[in-house]
């Protein structure tokens, strides 16, 4: 997840390792050192900084993708439980012989670094798909 997790010292050290510009390397090494602990804490707890923003801020650092992925936190799976009544869903108009799965999804929004909304990875995706479906239906387009 490149958008949600704050930068870590291993990430900053990796960026420093691959930084070609001397000033960028010095800044990244300082942020990941004991002397730069206060600045590092400010970076993590201040405005939300994403991995793409860090890569943009330090353009001379171009770590290989496998190395970059190796220092990022793995997105943990979220377990959901879905259920439906096949008799109710297939009894609806136009659904004879088909099953309908209905879900309720709570979309939690937090501000992103620009001040706009940021949603969860899975719930945000489901919300966008539902909005596209609704808009297509309202426009008279067959969403299938």
Automatic annotation (TrEMBL):
Keywords: FAD, Flavoprotein, Oxidoreductase. It comes from the Eukaryota. The keyword Flavoprotein applies. Its cofactor is FAD. Residues 5-125 form the Sulfite reductase [NADPH] flavoprotein alpha-component-like FAD-binding domain. Pfam families: FAD_binding_1. InterPro entries: CysJ-like_FAD-binding, NADPH_Cyt_P450_Rdtase_alpha, Riboflavin_synthase-like_b-brl. This is Sulfite reductase [NADPH] flavoprotein alpha-component-like FAD-binding domain-containing protein.
């Amino acid at each position: 997840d490149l958008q949600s997790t704050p930068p870590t010292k291993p990430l900053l050290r990796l960026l420093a390792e691959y930084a070609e510009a001397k000033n960028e390397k010095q800044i990244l090494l300082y942020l990941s050192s004991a002397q730069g602990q206060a600045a590092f804490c400010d970076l993590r707890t201040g405005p939300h900084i994403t991995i793409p923003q860090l890569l943009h801020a330090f353009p001379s650092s171009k770590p290989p993708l496998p190395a970059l992925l190796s220092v990022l936190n793995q997105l943990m799976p979220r377990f959901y439980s879905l259920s439906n009544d096949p008799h109710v869903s297939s009894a609806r108009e136009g659904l004879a012989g088909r099953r309908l799965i209905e879900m309720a999804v709570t979309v939690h929004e937090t501000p992103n670094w620009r001040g706009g909304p940021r949603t969860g990875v899975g719930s945000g995706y489901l919300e966008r798909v539902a909005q596209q479906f609704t808009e297509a239906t309202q426009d008279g387009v067959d969403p299938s």
